[in-house]
Design goal:
This protein is α/β, with parallel strands linked by helices. It has one domain: HAD superfamily/HAD-like (Rossmann fold), CATH 3.40.50. 33% of the residues lie in helices and 15% in strands. It contains seven helices and six strands. Strands 3-2-1-4-5-6 form a six-stranded parallel beta sheet. Helix 1 links the parallel strand 1 and strand 2 (48-54). The two termini are 29 Å apart. The protein binds 1,7-di-O-phosphono-D-glycero-beta-D-manno-heptopyranose, magnesium ion (MG) and zinc ion (ZN).
């Protein structure tokens, strides 16, 4: 059996790109400063890079799954072009009060539930204890905790940091740009 790999689980909006609110257009997708360089370093440090994003805008009828996929392909290619190959991209299109019926459910993938992380663990053979969950909200920290991720890291680059978010996090850093150095520091 292949050895397990450590991963960085990455929230999308507020962590990789500026959270303008339910971002679904390329023109509105803006990488946060230092993100791509940080991903390059994390990759070199041996981490698998796995995006885990709640996309309730699909359930809310704000944009379609196809629109999300188009933006995701663009994001994936933009990163690959800068030597950052993502190892997995997982998204939750659901919401319990969805206006679009097919997405109306209480699922196990919408963060704070750990479903996306656990699916990735199985599919990519991830060593959860050696992994990190990086996000801007309490829900990201709780998903990481429920999935057994070693360290939960809250970033200040998205939604305002709350006391609950801070309490659930192991580390609070300004943005993803600070993560490689923080990991090396131990
Ligand atoms: O940060 P990730 O998980 O990558 O994506 C979050 C987005 O899907 C949107 O999620 C919404 O939360 P609700 O889904 O409405 O609770 C709000 O936080 C929006 O501002 C945000 O853009
Ligand atoms: Mg977020
Ligand atoms: Zn879901």
């Amino acid at each position: 059996m292949a050895n397990k790999v450590p991963a960085i689980f990455l929230d999308r909006d507020g962590t990789l790109n500026v959270d303008h609110g339910y971002v679904h257009e390329i023109d509105n997708f803006q990488f946060i400063d230092g993100t791509i360089e940080a991903l390059q370093q994390l990759k070199q440090m041996g981490f698998a890079l796995v995006v885990v994003t709640n996309q309730s805008g699909i359930a809310r009828g704000m944009f379609t799954e196809d629109t999300f996929m188009r933006l995701t392909e663009w994001m994936d290619w933009s990163l690959a072009d800068r030597d950052v190959d993502l190892d997995g991209i997982y998204f939750c299109p659901h919401h319990p009060e969805a206006t679009v019926e097919e997405f109306r459910q209480t699922c196990d993938c919408r963060k704070p539930q750990p479903g996306m992380l656990l699916t990735a663990q199985q599919e990519l053979h991830i060593d959860m204890a050696a992994s990190y969950m990086v996000g801007d909200k309490l829900e990201d920290m709780l998903a990481g905790q429920a999935a057994g991720v070693g360290k939960k890291v809250l970033v200040r680059s998205g939604k305002p940091v709350t006391a609950e978010g801070e309490a659930a996090a192991d580390w609070v850093i300004d943005s993803l740009a600070a993560l490689p150095a923080r990991i090396k520091q131990g």
